[in-house]
Design a protein that fits this description.
By secondary structure, the protein is α+β, with helices and mostly antiparallel strands. The protein has two domains: 181 residues, Sandwich (Jelly Rolls); 113 residues, Homeodomain-like (Arc Repressor Mutant, subunit A, Orthogonal Bundle). Helices cover 49% and strands 19% of the residues. A hairpin with a 5-residue loop joins strand 1 and strand 2. Helix 3 packs antiparallel against helix 4 and helix 10 packs across helix 11. The C terminus is likely disordered. Pfam families: AraC_N, HTH_18.
C-alpha cells in the first residue's frame, strides 16, 4: 500500500509539473515535496509543522544540532525556526517524497482539553523532534492526499477532520511529547513561542528583550536560557534571520531597490544589510533582485 501511495504521489507531482520544492496542494494545508536529486544545503525558515517521510531522506540543521528523517519517519517543528536543510537521499529512480502540514495550535489546545494528558516536566527544552511515524499517522496523511481528486463538498467536510486526526496521531507518537508541551499555554515552549510570534510580527521594529521576557513571563536570564535552548540562537540573531528571510521574499517578488528593502525590513544601513545578506545566503541581495527581474522578462 505504501509503494502504491508513493507511486501515486510521484505520478501526481509529475502530471502537475510541480517544482522540486515544497508545494501547497490546496487541501487542508497539506504540502508535498518530491525531489529526484539530493539538494544543496539551503537556508530555510521553517514554520511550525508536522512532516512525514515516505521515501528518501532529508536533513535539517540549526545551531550545532542535526536532525534527519526519512521513509516511515516523522519530524515535528514546534516554532518558527531558521534552519539549514537539504534532501540527502534521492535519485531519479527513487525520488525523495514527503508530506508536511502546518501545526494548528487551536487544534492542539482543543485536543489537550479533551484528552487531559499529562506533560512530563523533566523533558528537555527543544523545538524539533523526530522518530518513527506510526501506521495511523501515515494512513491519515494518505487519506488527506486522496481527497485531492474528490468533489469539493467532500474536501470541505473531510479535510478538517483529517487534519485534526493527524494532529491527534502525532500527539500520541512516542516523540509527540514536544507537541503535548506546546498544547499547554503555561509550558516553556509555549511561552517562548509567544515571544517568537512577536518577533515574527514586528521584525522590522527595534527589539526589546526585556519586553519579550515579560511576554514569556520569565526573568531576563531565564528567557535567554530557554530561548537559546529551544531555538539554538539568541533573540537578536533570531530577529536578524527573520529580517533577512523577509528581505529575500521581497527581492524574489520583484523589489527594485536593495536599499529600500533594507529599510523596509528594519536595517538603518544598506551596506550592513548587504554584508549580512551575503553572509547568510552566499550572494549579495542584488543577485536575488536581478534573477527575479530576468524571470519576469522571460
Amino acid at each position: 500500500m505504501e509503494q502504491d501511495l508513493i507511486a501515486r504521489v510521484i505520478e501526481y507531482a509529475d502530471a502537475k509539473q510541480l517544482p522540486e520544492t515544497p508545494t501547497d496542494l490546496g487541501i487542508g494545508g497539506l504540502a508535498l515535496l518530491r525531489s529526484r536529486t539530493p539538494t544543496p544545503l539551503t537556508n530555510t525558515l521553517y514554520r511550525p509543522l508536522l512532516c512525514v517521510g515516505l521515501q528518501g531522506r532529508k536533513q535539517t540543521q540549526f545551531g550545532n544540532r542535526i536532525v534527519d528523517y526519512g521513509a516511515g519517519e516523522s519530524l515535528i517543528v514546534c516554532v518558527d525556526l531558521p534552519t539549514l536543510s537539504h534532501v540527502v537521499d534521492a535519485s531519479p529512480e527513487r525520488p525523495y517524497v514527503g508530506f508536511a502540514i502546518g501545526i494548528d495550535l487551536a487544534i492542539l489546545r482543543e485536543l489537550q482539553i479533551e484528552l487531559e494528558f499529562d506533560v512530563d516536566a523533566r523533558e528537555k527544552d527543544g523545538a524539533v523532534a523526530s522518530g518513527a511515524a506510526g501506521h495511523h499517522v501515515r494512513d491519515a496523511m494518505c487519506r488527506l492526499f486522496d481527497l485531492i481528486d474528490r468533489p469539493p463538498v467532500e474536501r470541505r467536510v473531510l479535510a478538517p477532520l483529517l487534519v485534526k486526526e493527524i494532529h491527534f496521531r502525532m500527539l500520541m507518537e512516542e516523540h509527540g511529547g514536544i507537541l503535548r508541551r506546546l498544547s499547554r499555554p503555561d509550558s516553556r515552549i509555549s511561552r517562548i513561542s509567544r515571544a517568537i510570534g512577536k518577533l515574527r510580527r514586528d521584525y522590522a521594529q527595534p527589539i526589546s528583550v526585556h519586553e519579550l521576557a515579560e511576554l514569556a513571563s520569565m526573568s531576563l536570564s531565564s528567557f535567554h536560557e530557554h530561548f537559546k535552548a529551544i531555538t539554538a540562537t539568541t533573540p537578536i540573531q533570531f530577529q536578524k534571520d527573520i529580517r533577512l528571510f523577509a528581505a529575500r521574499q521581497k527581492l524574489m517578488a520583484g523589489a527594485v531597490s536593495v536599499a529600500s528593502v533594507a529599510f523596509e525590513v528594519g536595517y538603518e544601513s544598506p551596506t550592513q544589510f548587504s554584508r549580512e545578506y551575503s553572509r547568510k545566503f552566499g550572494h549579495p541581495p542584488s543577485i536575488e533582485r536581478d534573477i527575479s527581474q530576468r524571470s519576469e522578462v522571460a
